[in-house]
Specification:
Number of helices: 1
Structural class: mainly beta
Largest sheet: 13 strands, parallel
Shape: rod-shaped
Strand order of the largest sheet: 10-11-12-13-14-15-16-17-18-19-20-21-22
Number of strands: 40
Distance between the termini: 170 Å
Strand content: 15-25%
Length: about 725
Amino acid sequence: NYSFDTNGNVTGLGTISSGAIVSTGSIAGTSFITTGTLTCGDIILDGGGSLKVGGASAFTIDESGNVTKIGMDSPSSGEFLKWDGGNSKAVWDSSTLNDLTDVLVNTTNFYSSLLIQTNRLGLVPTTGILDSAKNNIGIGHDVFKSLTSGTNNIVIGGGSSEADTGPANALTTGYQNIALGTGTGRYWQTAFHNVAIGWRACGGENVDSMAPDNNICIGYKAGSSIKNTRNICIGSHAGLNIADGHLNTFLGHSAGMGDSSNFLSGSNNTFIGAASGKIIESTAEDNTLLGTYSGNKITTGIQNVILGSLSNPSGFEATNQIVIGYYTEGLGDNTAVIGNQNIEDVYMNSNGNATVHCSVVSSNSTTALKLTTNQVTDAGSITIGNGPDAPIYISPNGNGAVKVTTIKTTGPPTKGGIPWTENVQAIQKIDWGQCALNITQTYDGKYDGAGNIGGKNDHAGNAIAIRSKGDKNDIDKHIWLIGLDGDHQEGTGGEHPELVFQYRETETDSIRYGLHANPITNTKMKLDFTGQHKCYGKDNNIIDYTQYIGYITVSTGIYNSQSTGPDITNIKNIFINESLPIVELSNKNNQKSVFGVISLVETDETRTRTYQNIMRISYDKPEGDNRLTINSLGEGAVWVSNYSGNFENGDYITSCVIPGIGCKQADDILHNYTVGKITCGVDFDNLSTTDPFEYKEIVHDGVPYKCVFVGCTYHCG
């Protein structure tokens, strides 16, 4: 029941309710089908001028309202996306559109923003959320999940700037933040002016990080515990454990990373370099570090300046230390170190001509002061060393040099008000510290055992070391050492130190020249003279000659010079300047081979050999070459007996049958068997405890003899 009108339109078509439209040609004409409804699968043409395509009207063209709708029914308004003929704008729902072409779900007052998220539509909270959220860009799941009033925020990353657990509620009134990365700014509430780029950067791991501001944190966990303001952390783990600190700048991987068990609360730290200040913690502040691993010893130190990779102050809690140089270490609080142990010269400008102004110049065991200009001007007083025991080094390795024209004090010293320049006893009145140069050595000469004059304490202390420019690279040889030996120390047996000049020829060999320092009243060697010989004793390995000091010896006719050492089998031991016979104790009356009196005895424990008077000369003794020091000329002492009667002062002394003991010579003629001349009288029949002699009794061949130790002059050498 249909017909065609004069215009070619089909009328009276009715309703086709089943089946399909089968094309049997063409439907021509320029008019719409206006009568009835055509339903064919998911295509609906109703009589009201609407076309709907798809189940539940997924695509709808409404002629009456000039509206095109695409999508299934949305949760509330019945359309998913529409083009409104009234304003030609696309909206997500039925609310008023903002300035951008946005895609929104159940939001209010969302202006000039782009929100991209991965959650399914409809899962974002629905009431009042994102109120007044203006000028924001959010990219990532749950972005701005709980935001209410934040403005001017840029958040990129899953979980960025969101907190739905813990004491923090949400970023509410914070503004003008940039957060890029998962968990960045996770616990912010009122934070503003922060730039956070990196996984959980800028407070992303601290539930108390609700209100930081003006921080820049770039890198994995950079500043992840920040609570305070104006910190810069750039680099993975940089400033990881800053909490309450502010105005800190950490640049580099793990720079200022800190300790999670003791968050950093200190401020004003500047660290540049990977791992610089890596273990800083607690109240550390005002530190400046530059260089990889610089200052990585500091925990709670303050006011330190460390410039150089691997350089550090002297301790974890260092204070006010300046350390400059590669792998250089500080020397203590309130000190400055320039250069490591390999630095030999320090210049104040390119040609070293700068003027250095200071009130005090001091030094310790590992620093040095090197003056290369002609003079030190306007210096006032110069103190080198910290206290009386501080050592002085011209350079760390001894390669420096000191040139001094004049060293003087600022005025004459006094004692008891008497100027030393006006008193004949001046030298006795000068106190320590009143001289132009005062040196206290920190190591006295080697101590091997009981000293006495010419004993074992004959090495120089560490007061002065001198060497030539050509030998500056030699550490242990070709050095002159000047200092005091250890003979004055308690238990050494010595009374006063000797001034020792020691030349170290090699690392192990040296020769020493010593000046005795015994008091004027001391009876030990002064300006006397004694001709001495270093002779080998017969049967030296059997006889203990130490019990025969002051005993007379005779020549055996066999020689053993020092140049050949302990080898007594060498018969060629006669030299123009040294022909030393092997000696033994005298044992005959008037023995014409007398050679001298035993003065000193070397043993295996004796390490040095000494020639001495007021000037002592010693050197290291060859091992096993134990010799006797024999007095042959000059003055000294000898043991004598009553074998041939009493002595008068001036009588000659000769040998007798008592081994090593002298007796009165029968006449007053100097013979080849004369040992010496006694310088006192001895009445053996009337000896008393008041006599100055040392006394003992010796039995020989069953006969007891009285023996005394007397002074004499020697005449057998």
